[in-house]
Amino acid sequence: MEANRVYNFNPGPATLPLSVLKEAQAEFLNFGNSGMSILEISHRAKPYAAVHAQAKADIKELMGLGDDYEVLFCQGGASQQFAMIPLNFASKEHPGSYVLSGSFASKAYKEAELLGVGEIAASSKDRDFKHIPIQEELKINPNAAYVHLCYNNTIYGTEYHYIPETNGVPLFADMSSDMLSRPLDFKKFDFIYAGVQKNLGPAGVVLVVAKKELLAKSPKTLPTMFRYSTFLEKDSLYNTPPAFCIYMVGKVAAWIKAEGGLEEMAKRNKKKAAVVYDAIDNSDGFYKGHADKDSRSFMNVTFRLPSEELEAKFVKEALEQGLSGVKGHRSVGGMRASIYNAMPYEGAEKLAQFMDKFRKENA
Fold it and tell me: Does 174 belong to an annotated binding site?
């Protein structure tokens, strides 16, 4: 670890590859010999157009998608997509069908419910969102406009380890916290979106990857900036985009490619998750994981200690050891270690070692 830097376990904004940060730093004042920072260049200028196009190309290459899919750069966070999706695609005759597996899946459903176009296909709320609903639990309306999932749950630490069969109903997924973290058959999804601040870049842009024919169907009655067709037709340049954020997303995508692609990310992420989960499972009950083992997330490890007093002490002493951001979400408490692509194995290993030491001193 570099001097004066910590291992950052925050859930988002989150850790970024150090080499990417250094690249951005090196060209910050003079991007591409333009004499300007990337923050100053017009989004209509050729240097930025190249950044924009390369980021899109690298993302589609990593996902194994062809020309029938488009990459959009939107704003408003994933939370705005919660409303834009039902506005663009759902109706009372063809509602959105939502699988509730955590806080953000529930928030997405509430936006559709507010519009009168949402229904619940399955929910794990009755067990405090400890598991991902399995295929047999899904009650999908064949007339639904789409089935909506939150593929990884940052707050509860659960993640899908299968792709649901929807019997022809379009499959939509919020992948904010596990986007490009492992290989998937992305062609089985019709619409994917992700707030990039967890695994792909700084806060300020939402990545949308979806079938072009779907994006083109936005109702003309919607305001211009609420239509996905606007982003499709104008290459996400109808208004001034968050250019610096897109530039950083492009650099992170290029970094993933250079490091070995999604297969290598998955290999690393499984190894990191294993060392932290082992610290939980071998603690004789001192640490209690929230998620059922078959639903555990590779991205967000959540657990509790015997008391809130010990949890506060854990957070304080972890920070003293250069382990930052391990406090759980305010709605559920406990601990949460976010181990996204950019978290090195050494960070997860150091956390596991600290957990073992803390347990022995406080059990």
Answer: yes
